[in-house]
Protein 1
Amino acid sequence: MKKTIVLIYGGKSAEHDISILTAQSVMNAIDKEKFDVHPLYIGADGEWFKGEQIKGQIDDTTLLRSSIPIHNMIQALREVDGKVVDIVFPLLHGPNGEDGTIQGLLDVANIPYVGNGVLSSSVGMDKLVAKQLFTQRGLKQLPYVGFLHSEWLEYEDSVLHSIDKKLHFPMFVKPANLGSSLGISKVESTEELIEGIRQAFKYDRKVVVEQGVTAREIEVGVIGNDELQTTEPGEVVKQVDFYDYEAKYQEGNASLQIPAHIDEEQKKVMRHMATQAFKAADCAGLVRADFFLTEDGSIYINEINTMPGFTKFSMFPLLWANMNLAYSELIETLINLGIERFEQRQSISFQKDS
Ligand SMILES: Nc1ncnc2c1ncn2[C@@H]1O[C@H](COP(=O)(O)OP(=O)(O)O)[C@@H](O)[C@H]1O
Ligand SMILES: [Mg+2]
């Protein structure tokens, strides 16, 4: 039987436009013999729009033109064209989508969805909480100092002192939440550090200052719920010093090397660390785990992405293609994992035994 699926994309986030590209890519690749595909677009201002069922190949203009504003969000997620929705696929990146908020709405409404739940989504979005959980799991990370805006305002000197004790230049200053490189800076001096911290606090109430390293950037894909599968690692071969917001979304700034040209042993360690990171954050469905590999061969986990870039040409789908799981099969696998996870949840009791 054909399944009814709602694809949510766009969203109130700096990654709104990349989400539209992802949605186009998924809408074109998804097997329409198996799925009735319905788009649900969230504008950059947060307004929701419902589109017509996707039947053939699409481009972004048809997508947006066919959409009509909707006011009953829960209803739009539950039922389309008189049919019960089997599963929702949130193709959203960044705040208001990758951070657990949409997932919470779907949980409350008891609607199955693809990918990570509330907890892992919000952990993945919060670099400081993620680091604390990775530490607890024994995963090697770069040294860091994290603090709140209120602590910075009140104890600037002692915060600077603890940074100075633990780290040396260059350092990376990051807003704890966001994930689009916005507000991130590489700093080389105390003046730059202070300025970087001030900038980062424009984007969040929590900031992480991290040891800067010269490193290759290697990524591993993970899928599964309880039983996990990992990909061979791939490398983001950098043409720039680091990926700030502009560099990240410009073509030609990076090329992907899949599989990465690294030692077999390093591959093994990263694949294992990727599953540990998945478990540390209690992930479901999928994760892309990102690593730094320094010149001396040290491997550090940098972060996990609970809704990684997902166009046909993004790292995560290409990592799976390299494992002989084609893009449309990957989409189907993730849908099935989402349904499996939903059914597991249904069997969990929320009440005291009578
Ligand atoms: N400690 C670090 N040392 C060297 N480069 C870093 C460091 N932290 C971040 N970077 C660079 O900045 C980029 C963005 O940082 P990241 O923590 O991955 O944030 P985002 O969530 O925006 O992807 C990384 O891909 C890397 O190029
Ligand atoms: Mg990153």
Note: The chain has three domains: 3-113, 143-211, 215-345.
Protein 2
Amino acid sequence: MAFIFTCGTHKFRSQMQGYENLQVQCQNCGNFSGHVMKLWEWFTFCFVPIIPFSLKPYPAVHCPICNFEQDLKYRPDVQQQVNGGGQAIPMQPGGQQGWNTRPPPPLPPGQGAQVYK
Ligand SMILES: [Zn+2]
């Protein structure tokens, strides 16, 4: 006789407040159908959650089409959308002064029409 213990993981998902209307691209299937969800993964024993893998729920992008999940920390583009939604982001100090001040090089004469002597 052998005892079969069923271990696994269970993910709790819940909507993130303020992110309900945000749709982001899924990096797995490419569809703009990803939603930002709160995920909380637990270690389960006989389908009973015993130990949380992380102390707190963490935000992640969940795609309902391909069921792909990606931690929000790997999605700086989404974080930018989130942070830029409510408040204005101060532009980079200094702007573009100091670099790229060189004028474009003049086109050499005769380019495009090659003349052979
Ligand atoms: Zn997807």
Note: The longest strand covers residues 35-45.
